Amino acid sequence: MPAPAEPAPSGQPAESAPPVVVSNVVGSFPWSVLAERHPALIRQVRGAFPYGPGQHRALDTLLADCTEGVVEPLGPEAADRDQWLEWGRDRIGRSWFDVPFLWSESYFYRRLLEAVGYFAPGPWQGIDPFRPFKLAELDTAEADEELAALDELAPRPAEEQEVALLHGSLWGNRADLGFRLGAASQDTPTASRLVADDGDALRSLLRGGTLCLVADNAGRELIPDLLLVDHLLHHGRITRAVLHVKPYPYYVSDATTADTVDALRRLVDAKGAAGEAGRRLWAAAADGRLTVRAHPFFCAPLPYADLPDDLRREFAAADLTVLKGDLNYRRLIGDRLYPATTPFAVATDHFPGAVAALRTLKSDVVVGLDAGTEAALVAAEEQRWRTGGTHALIQVGP
Ligand SMILES: O=P(O)(O)OC[C@H]1O[C@](O)(CO)[C@@H](O)[C@@H]1O
Questions:
Q1: CATH no. of 14-127
Q2: 302 alpha carbon to ligand 1 midpoint, in Å?
Q3: Residue 84 needs a FRET pair 20 to 30 A away by CA distance; which of 15, 76, 204, 277 works?
Q4: CA 48 to ligand 1 centroid distance, Å
Q5: Which CATH number does the domain 133-397 belong to among 3.40.50.2000, 3.30.230.10, 3.40.50.620, 3.40.50.10880?
Q6: 330-386, pLDDT tens digit by residue?
Q7: To 5 degrees, how large is the angle CA 67–CA 112–CA 266?
């Protein structure tokens, strides 16, 4: 299962680093993503647009490559061909199932966009193949109900609102369209489903400075993220927020700048407290208190240990960086199979500043659990709690 060529996290000798997740164990979670979820996604994208024969042929090729073939390089016309070779030259010619899961999954999305003409000059350039699914998310009775619920929260004490909005942002991470292609359980989240809760420590780090929020999914995750940011700005808990989004469509529902605009419009158009929050956020964007950034690193197949210098400096200068979601968590701990009781601070000691993870558990990796919690989870569910999306965590470090 380990990928021997992967470098160790900073400061760790290669031989002692926990193995990186790969997808070659039939029936394992990462295997199911490559063998089942990716083909289902290709089918879904095919049906969502009136693509032409060239796009269908390219999707056929991708489907064959990623399920039965080997990793092929990007075409010679791709501007980032050399960049991807630098990130994984040694993966070319190998089965997608034998290379690190983080790399193969990320490359799948890059190839999918190439297949539908997202990057090539022409009529399909910049057309997000996932946009219909993301927009549909915003236009549901559940979304209306969630926004209306804000009116009940508004008269409550600020601290109570803050905790509720933090949990809204956390559990919003279940609203992930890629995940729903699998067999997600939809039971109601409760506090007992928090396997680690550093919520108080997180809130103690909000000291009136800059918050970097690395967003995950658009739609019904981004809306509560934005509501949390609004609350923190409005109550002086932070003076500035930087929202980091993806530079291009990724992992189905990940938020881009266009999705952020859609979410802000949805808020602005809402009635009551949600509309007020939307209008405050709009004003905060205008006066620079809310900034959106779409750094290429966020679509790179790299762990956070390999942060580029500009982001490293930015996160070091912030009061706190909040990483949303499962993929950010995987990248934070290098997608390595640490023992679950490894302290969060140990696995994240490479991070340049204070970092918090808000994540529902949707993949095998996890750290920072106490031994009793892990034992109880295993006794109740064997290892299903790791991937079912029914449990969540708030962790702060390093
Ligand atoms: O949107 P999130 O929370 O980052 O989740 C991404 C999902 O995709 C995966 O990478 C698998 O496709 C899992 O880690 C997770 O289920």
A1: 1.20.930
A2: 15
A3: 15
A4: 21
A5: 3.40.50.10880
A6: 999 999 999 999 999 999 999 999 999 999 999 999 999 999 999 999 999 999 999
A7: 130
